[in-house]
Amino acid sequence: MDKFFKEVPRERVVAGYRRTVRGFRASQIRCVLIARDADDHIVCELKKLCSERNVPFRFAGSKAEFGEWLGLDVACAVCGEAVENALF
User: Fold this and answer.
1) How far is CA 9 from CA 14, 46, 53, 75, in A?
2) Cβ atoms 63, 77 nearer than 8 A
């Protein structure tokens, strides 16, 4: 996985757009990693949320790589790091 999340414990990784947005609404996201081939509307919304909440983000890999990194059976456009003990 990208070095951005290399040290993040698996239980704090939030996979997927909906879960990441839910985490933003709960103020529980520390940083975000966006796939380079993510849909434009997803990229725009996430950049807006990150900007509003001063959350760092970066682009890396593809949706297929994200899915593989995260052990998912599907592609994934975004993942985030949640704060410790996040509930959302």
Assistant:
1) 11, 22, 23, 21
2) yes
pLDDT digit string, tens, across residues 10-50:
888 999 999 999 999 999 999 999 999 999 999 999 999 99
Residues whose CB is less than 8 angstroms from the CB of residue 64 and which lie 6 or more positions away in sequence, other chains included = 75
% the chain with pLDDT above 90: 70
| Residue 34 and residue 61 in contact, taking contact as beta carbons nearer than 8 Å | no
* Residue count of the chain: 88
Q: Write out the two tokens for 32.
A: 């975000």
